[in-house]
């Protein structure tokens, strides 16, 4: 079982992915830029087979929709495969038992993520398969979109048409050996209404063999797997433990402030003290989610075991937020948590901050955002009833990655607001220190950068997906 944000290597073989329960399912095949190449890279009920044959929407069985992703047949231009769920008649939080699980050819579960913190969004990236170190990893994502499937698709380069969707093609007969017809590139992707995917016979996995692995069988990449025959694939070579893969050296225009490290994750219940060792000294992001309607508080502990400045002080139901914390020179971060219910806490590098752009960014609760472009105006729309407090940390010319420069308080208001804040040239950290409600952030009047990035050189990437290794999960 995985928690949100966690990742793990999976065998580079055809995987069957179960999405429960009752949501509409689609898959997006993305390049390194995080965008589709065209409408053919969208697999949904109106186009259930990718032109390469690598991804197929198989059908529904007792509320579970099955996807088949043949990782051996994914084209080289594709870096990520997103598994997306959406609803038509309610929010994702109303879907009970929502989960995504990947199965190896012998029926063994190799990754599973139970979505436990869905909100009012109507579409969500549930999980993704992405390339890493010559293999593939599975990540539990759980990123929701209040704007629904159209907003999610648009963010990934899909041309969403407003016209009615094309008729659903008849299903390919179960025994048909012919490859799937190509998806017409001239027809834009249509946001699908609820539709019944033709039911397929239940997935029948052979009984696992304990000591033998079947020899490789090189089948055509686009040949459908007959449901009546047990699902068989070449036996994968042993998957080695993920080695430490050095992150790529930054380009001259890449932000290089702050260290990139392996994220830490821990789950628990009620009050606790969390200790994280071997972190690089300096500012980090603490991502906290608590389920319940009681009080939530978070404090750093000093070396004398005394509480430092309060990081979280909330009575909000189902609290969720990201705050800044400071790791001392010892590399040990200790946090005291007060919570009435189950919780999940992650410690992330600054590179994990969501990047501001001219596309709208949505969130709820305190957060840490990153601006790396030229001068711009930041438009904030806040829909909470309590304080909205925003600080800017201008990192340009600041070379000490063990401490942030002095912050500038640019917003301190109460209730629903629309604020426009002028931003200097990045990099700039934008901290929503208090925001007990939903918000939207978007840049306008964005200018090109006038100079290359300058930093302390300790960072290596701006995208947390490139941080090496797996997430470390705390044990209780």
Annotate the secondary structure layout.
Elements (H helix, E strand, L loop, with lengths): L6 E4 L3 E7 L3 E7 L11 E2 L11 E7 L2 E7 L9 E7 L12 E5 L5 E6 L8 E10 L2 E11 L2 H8 L4 E2 L27 E2 L73 E6 L2 E5 L5 E9 L5 E5 L11 E3 L5 E8 L5 E6 L3 E7 L5 E2 L5 E4 L2 E5 L4 E7 L4 E8 L13 E7 L2 E7 L4 E8 L2 E7 L27 E2 L3
Parallel strand pairs: 12-13, 14-31, 22-24
Antiparallel strand pairs: 1-11, 2-6, 2-8, 3-4, 3-7, 5-6, 7-10, 8-9, 10-11, 14-21, 15-20, 16-19, 16-21, 17-18, 17-20, 23-30, 24-29, 25-28, 25-30, 26-27, 26-29
Strand order of the largest sheet: 1-11-10-7-3-4
Domain module count: 3
The fraction of residues assigned to DSSP E strands is 35-45%
The CATH class of the largest domain turns out to be Mainly Beta
Low-confidence stretches: 162-187, 194-254, 455-473
Radius of gyration: 23 Å
Q: Any idea what the CATH superfamily of the largest domain is called?
A: sav2460 like domains
Distance between the termini: 15 Å
- Approximate shape: globular
| Total DSSP E strands | 31
Kindly report the CATH topology of the largest domain. Answer: Lipoxygenase-1
What is the tally of helical segments?
Answer: 1
What are the main properties of this structure?
Lipoxygenase-1, 476 residues, mainly beta, globular, 31 strands, six-stranded antiparallel sheet, Jelly Rolls, five-stranded antiparallel sheet
Provide structural commentary.
- This protein has 476 residues and is an all-beta fold.
- It folds into 3 domains: 7-190, sav2460 like domains (Lipoxygenase-1, Sandwich); 264-351, Jelly Rolls, CATH 2.60.120; 353-444, Jelly Rolls (Sandwich), CATH 2.60.120.
- Helices cover 2% and strands 38% of the residues.
- The chain is built from 1 helix and 31 strands.
- The chain has one helix spanning 148-155, and strands at 7-10, 14-20, 24-30, 42-43, 55-61, 64-70, 80-86, 99-103, 109-114, 123-132, 135-145, 160-161, 189-190, 264-269, 272-276, 282-290, 296-300, 312-314, 320-327, 333-338, 342-348, 354-355, 361-364, 367-371, 376-382, 387-394, 408-414, 417-423, 428-435, 438-444, 472-473.
- A 6-stranded antiparallel sheet has the order 1-11-10-7-3-4.
- The relative contact order is 0.14.
């Amino acid at each position: 079982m995985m928690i949100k944000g966690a990742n793990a290597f999976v065998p580079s073989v055809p995987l069957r992915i179960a999405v429960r329960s009752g949501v509409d399912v689609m898959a997006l095949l993305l390049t390194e830029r995080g965008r589709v190449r065209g409408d053919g890279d969208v697999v949904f009920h109106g186009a259930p087979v990718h032109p390469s044959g690598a991804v197929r929407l198989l059908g529904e069985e007792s509320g579970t929709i099955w996807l088949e992703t043949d990782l051996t047949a994914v084209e080289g231009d594709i870096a990520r495969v997103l598994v997306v769920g959406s609803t038509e008649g309610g929010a994702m939080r109303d879907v009970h038992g929502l989960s995504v699980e990947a199965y190896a050819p012998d029926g063994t579960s190799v990754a599973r993520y139970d979505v436990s913190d869905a909100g009012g969004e109507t579409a969500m990236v549930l999980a993704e398969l992405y390339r890493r170190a010559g293999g593939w990893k599975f990540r539990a994502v759980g990123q929701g979109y209040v704007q629904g499937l159209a907003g999610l698709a648009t963010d990934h380069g899909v041309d969403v048409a407003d016209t009615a969707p094309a008729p659903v093609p008849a299903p390919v007969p179960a025994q048909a050996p012919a490859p799937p017809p190509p998806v017409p590139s001239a027809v834009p992707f249509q946001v699908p209404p609820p539709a019944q995917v033709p039911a397929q016979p239940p997935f029948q996995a052979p009984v696992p063999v304990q000591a033998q692995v079947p020899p490789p069988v090189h089948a055509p990449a686009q040949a459908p797997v007959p449901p009546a025959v047990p699902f068989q694939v070449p036996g994968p070579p042993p998957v080695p433990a993920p080695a430490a893969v050095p992150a790529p050296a930054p380009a001259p225009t890449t932000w290089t402030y702050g260290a990139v490290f392996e994220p830490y994750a821990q789950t628990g219940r009620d009050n606790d003290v969390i200790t994280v060792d071997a972190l690089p000294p300096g500012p980090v992001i603490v991502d906290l989610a608590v389920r319940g309607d009681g009080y939530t508080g978070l404090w750093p502990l000093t070396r004398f075991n005394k509480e430092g400045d309060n990081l979280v002080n909330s009575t909000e139901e189902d609290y969720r937020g990201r705050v800044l914390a400071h790791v001392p020179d010892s590399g040990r971060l200790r946090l005291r948590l007060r919570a009435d219910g189950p919780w999940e806490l992650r410690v992330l590098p600054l590179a994990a901050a969501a990047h501001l752009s001219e596309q709208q960014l949505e969130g709820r609760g305190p957060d840490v955002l990153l601006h790396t472009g030229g001068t711009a105006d930041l438009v904030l729309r806040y829909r909470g009833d309590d304080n909205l407090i925003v600080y800017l940390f201008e990192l340009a010319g600041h070379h000490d990655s063990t401490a942030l420069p002095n912050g500038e308080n640019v917003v301190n208001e109460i209730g629903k607001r629309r604020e426009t804040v002028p931003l200097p040239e990045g990099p700039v950290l934008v901290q929503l220190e208090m925001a007990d409600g939903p918000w939207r952030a978007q840049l306008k009047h964005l200018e090109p950068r006038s100079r290359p990035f300058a930093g302390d050189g300790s960072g290596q990437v701006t995208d947390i997906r490139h941080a090496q290794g797996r997430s470390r999960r705390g044990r209780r």
